[in-house]
From TrEMBL:
It comes from Candidula unifasciata. It is found in: Membrane. One of its GO terms (molecular function) is symporter activity. The chain crosses the membrane at residues 163-184, 196-221, 227-249, 256-276, 296-315, 327-352, 358-380, 419-440. Residues 459-487 are annotated as: Disordered. It is a multi-pass membrane protein. Keywords: Membrane, Signal, Symport, Transmembrane, Transmembrane helix, Transport. The keyword Membrane applies. InterPro entries: BilAc:Na_symport/Acr3 (IPR002657), Bilac:Na_transpt (IPR004710), Na+/solute_symporter_sf (IPR038770). The lineage of its organism: Eukaryota, Metazoa, Spiralia, Lophotrochozoa, Mollusca. This is Ileal sodium/bile acid cotransporter. GO terms for cellular component: membrane. The keyword Membrane applies.
């Protein structure tokens, strides 16, 4: 029976992407709507790539085919050009073209300037010309006879500083994973795995709750395909080493935290590509580009192997492992300072792409993860320390992994837009944890002060009892003395 249910679950998981993909609204390029009175074509290859900061001039051919449905008595026609995302690209030339009935075909030229990486659509619309209307301003009741769209890709020109940023990120992730393998106490991991219920809850929360949350958030908010894929890849990523420090400060189970981080990192080699191959196809379907699974797998392999190298270093050369761990701390400080200064300067465009929807999605992913992870541990009757640990491990993701994977694997604008969600999420993730740490530390201080007061009260009470006993003994001595005197 269990095998049958398992097969049904896998079948449903396989069919979900196809079902969702068929129900999701699609956008057909170069399709003329309405009466098809206006046809616009171009010799350029689309999607057309525009470099941000540069101006590109595109040429189009139009043919006007009037029919009996065209109202008589018009001065002519107007063809307007608009872009759907003027935050990414602007039309810097004339965008309104007057077409008279004596010249029903010709050439149009549009100059576009790229501003931010992403996807945009150039749309041509055929309208009735309205006498006295200013260019680009039309009455709301003017009929649009036809519409033709062309997809645009806006990309950043890769600079030396971008290459340096990519190299530093890769080195940082590799060194962190080698350090993880070198400092993990395998005896602690073995002890935790003897009672594997808590690690299993954590693994389930990490690789079931988080991918589903990321998918639902990205799908509901209709994020840009590249940004959505970055959010989904983050949701499929393992926990980060920072979760161990947060668990310690929140009085969680540090041994369980270390075990879950290690297990999720090793499991990500298979589970992350599996999720990208299933629901990831739906998230990225509008991009009309295939996810480069081979590149992602080999990049992921290059991230997991350093953990194994750390294990070998710890087992074979323990003294070298200790020296390496100490050196890595200082190296990572230098790299982090580089990222916070040069890295931020090189990627300032990221903050311009952080719209309200992106910020909401990036905050919801870790916050809902904290709640569901803790709730799952509570339902499974774990103790408070384990509940805190599983909640923290579920919500905190290794941000460096999706950045490295997608930045090195994707091409076009998605190479730049896919890292927006991980970085935005990394900004939001620590906020509730810092409040939690503040609460825990204040509680400790209050309890410590209460214990001091109780201890001092006990001392006062004890001294009071001793003085009372002494005072009770004095009359007896006095009576004995008087009795002797009387004799």
């Amino acid at each position: 029976m269990d095998k049958i249910l398992y097969c049904i679950f896998l079948t449903g998981l396989w069919l979900v992407p196809a079902t969702l993909q068929s129900t999701r609204p699609t956008h057909n390029d170069n399709v003329t709507k309405s009466d098809k009175n206006l046809t616009v074509t171009s010799n350029h290859t689309f999607p057309y790539t525009i470099i941000d900061g540069e101006v590109s001039t595109l040429y189009f051919n139009y043919i006007l085919e009037p029919d009996s449905k065209v109202p008589a008595g018009l001065d002519g026609w107007v063809v307007t050009a608009v872009v759907d995302h003027d935050k990414l690209v602007n039309i810097v030339s004339n965008s309104v073209f007057h077409i008279h009935t004596t010249n029903l075909s010709g050439t149009l030229s549009i100059s576009l300037k790229g501003k931010l990486p992403g996807r945009a659509t150039l749309i041509f619309q055929g309208r009735d010309e309205v006498t006295g209307a200013e260019d680009g301003v039309f009455k709301s009741d003017v009929k649009v006879y036809s519409q033709t769209s062309f997809e645009l890709h806006i990309e950043r020109q890769e600079k030396t500083i971008d290459i340096a940023f990519n190299v530093i990120i890769v080195i940082l992730v590799v060194l962190a994973n080698v350090g993880m393998g070198a400092k993990v106490d395998l005896s602690v991991v073995k002890t935790q795995l003897r009672r594997p219920f808590a690690p299993i809850i954590g693994l389930f929360s990490q690789f079931v709750f988080m991918p589903v949350i990321a998918f639902m958030v990205a799908y509901t908010l209709k994020l840009d395909p590249g940004i959505a894929l970055g959010l989904f890849a983050l949701g499929c990523s393992p926990g980060g080493s920072a979760s161990n420090a947060y668990t310690y400060l929140l009085d969680g189970n540090v041994s369980l935290s270390v075990t879950m981080t290690l297990i999720s990192t090793l499991a990500s080699l298979g589970l992350l590509p599996m999720w990208l191959f299933t629901l990831g196809r739906v998230v990225y379907s509008e991009a009309k580009v295939k996810i480069p699974f081979e590149n992602i797998f080999f990049s992921l392999l290059g991230i997991v192997i350093p953990v194994v190298v750390g294990f070998i270093l710890q087992r074979k050369y323990p003294k070298a492992a200790i020296c390496f761990i100490k050196a890595v701390k200082y190296i990572m400080i230098v790299f982090i300072l580089f990222i916070l200064t040069v890295g931020v300067y090189a990627n300032l465009y990221i903050f311009s792409l952080m719209t309200g929807e992106v910020l909401l999605a990036s905050a919801l992913l870790p916050y809902v993860g904290f709640i569901l992870g803790g709730l799952a541990a509570f339902i499974c009757r774990q103790n408070l320390a384990n509940i805190i640990t599983i909640a923290v491990e579920t919500g905190i993701q290794n941000t460096g992994i999706p950045i490295v994977l997608l930045r090195l694997s994707l091409t076009g604008p998605d190479k730049d837009t896919s890292i927006v969600s991980p970085i935005a999420s990394a900004i939001f993730t620590p906020i509730p944890l810092l409040f939690g740490i503040l609460f825990v530390q204040l509680r400790k201080c209050i309890l410590a002060n209460m214990n001091i007061i109780e201890d001092s009260g006990k001392e006062i009470s004890q001294s009071g009892k001793e003085s009372s006993k002494a005072s009770l003994k004095e009359p007896d001595n006095l009576s004995e003395t008087n009795h002797e005197d009387f004799k």
